[in-house]
Amino acid sequence: MFKDKTSLMMTLLKGRTLIVLVLLLIFFSVANDNFLSTNTLLLLAKHVALYGILAIGMTYVIITGGIDLSVGAVVGLAGMIAGGMIQNGVTLQFAGVTLYFSVPMVVILTIIVGAFIGWLNGIIITKFGVAPFIATLGTMYMARGWAMLHSNGATYSSLAGNEALGNTGFSFFGSRIAEIPVGALILVVIAIIAHILLKKTVFGWHIFAIGGNEKAAKLSGVKVDKVKILVYIFSAVCAAIVGLITASQLEAAHPATGETWEMNAIAAAVLGGTSMAGGIGTIGGTIVGAFVIGVISDGMVMCGVSEFWQMIIKGLVIILAVIIDQFQRNMEAKMALQARNESKD
Question: Which residues, by range, are in coiled-coil regions (predicted)?
Fold first, then answer.
């Protein structure tokens, strides 16, 4: 009987995020008749896409036992980099000319900037032994400052481009295909790729090995530093993509875009079952976690909940998710110990 209850509890704990999502959908649909309308669900999909892409990169980082606080700032910087190239081009002072790039080139260059910040995070953490929290906190301020300096704090308010300059079409990333937001489609593609990398490749096994026991992974021949650097690059690239999508949706770029979004990414990953202790996590769980964060955010807005209360509630959600995760890990350890004892008997 005890085993049955324990097994049932473990099943509920493992499916807790999905259960919470269903309960939230029921609650907000009762609280607001329009919550499950088509327009609301499409808006939710746009928001979940942003949280989800950020959270996928964060999941990789957390599985290795790290954290990336710079992703929100990278979102803002990516938007400013892209916005500046579209609106003002790139001026070469020594040649006295201004270059304007096509949208595909703008996207590539922006992602390269994001990758550079991720590489910088990885180098600081692996080569200089700086704790991930401190390293990414520093690059967060650097990226945010760079975004502010890019336009002296001003907004790039018109990103439609100019046909004569060959840089139109940036609004595509904020548009819809068959009524589905392009951002949501990008989320699906990134999620599939991230899942395959994590579950079906040696690289993914190395990520889990580092989070489970970094010293043992190193002794097993895993190139720990290289894997960590690649993980932080991936996280920053995800953030840069979110910055591009956000700027495209607004057709404007502001340096403060993405503030505190790293908290949404962390919350989505942890809610989805990614352990802050490292070594555990799934992309599917993270996507469900992103939906929970999106439903909470949009649901509270539609119900007229103060933004200040929203911050408090999100903070509580993160704390509770970590507490429940720790409780689940303790239960699994006890069950494993009990199974070993019974096998000896």
Answer: none
